[in-house]
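Supplementary notes for students who missed Thursday's class. We covered one full example, reproduced here. Read the sequence, then the structure, then the short commentary at the end.
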Amino acid sequence: MTTEDKEFICGPCDYLHTPKTAVVWCPTCEEGLCHDCSVHHTAGKLSRDHKPINIDHYKEMPMQMIEEVKKCLKHDEIYELYCPNHKTHCCVQCVKEKHAKCTGVTLLRKVIENIKTSAMVTEINQELENRMEGLVKLTENRKKNVDRINKQSSELCTEFRRMRKEIESVLDEFENALNEQAITVKNTQSSIVNNTIYKIGSHESVYKDLHSDLQKVIAYGNNFQVYSAVKTIEEALVKRDGELESLIKTSSGLQEINVVFNCSEQLSSLLTKDVQLGMVNTSCSPLEFDFKHTGKTWNGIVKRTVCKH
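Structure (token representation):
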């Protein structure tokens, strides 16, 4: 997601047709500088206040987030304004055509001049952190469920062996069937939950990547690049949140799955071995959790309570 393998050329040297590899990047001038040009750039009266960054740091930034489209594609005018009603940048013509009735339209440069410490960046950072934290907790919850499935599967066999001492001759054949059933249930249910854990991890990885990319842009990008990264993340979150919400609503691996032994009346009454004495089943209940993000809370939304194996 970065440009670590791309080689950047010194802008001034390239202009003079003597290209050299850039060692720093000037966010203000938006071009690379070789060592010699960097020295002159730092000393120059008009550029001594610029703050070049190491070219390796610039390469770490996710280019697809910070690609700077500064001109309106529809009107071919520079983006100069920002509409707080629609939370978007716009050119003068855009304001006339689409935002004439919007209040609070202001200069884009004022919006982004302190963007690294702004509420916009703070909020999007918090959104990413909330999702990562929520998915970590959800993953831990699911792992505990797998442990419980394994433990309960073992415990039910122990309980059965206790009963077998009293009815040994009747239960010899049934024990083998029960163990097979318990293994099948354990494998099936563990597979379902582990598959869900994998899917959760995939979403978590995306949010981590977005969060990591944003930190790099905040650390090394200019104001417009940070703004561009935020807008890219906002779009990505709409898509990813929809996929994650769909997973949570539909995945059978997001239920509290418990392995239980249903002892039949026939077993209690010590009837003949031709009667089915019991079976391994699962008891499911809605998963209790909070997964919050702006404007929505997913809380115990998995309401199916019947598990099948």
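Commentary. Confidence is low (pLDDT under 50) at residues 301-306. The two ends are 41 Å apart (CA to CA). If anything here is unclear, bring it to office hours.
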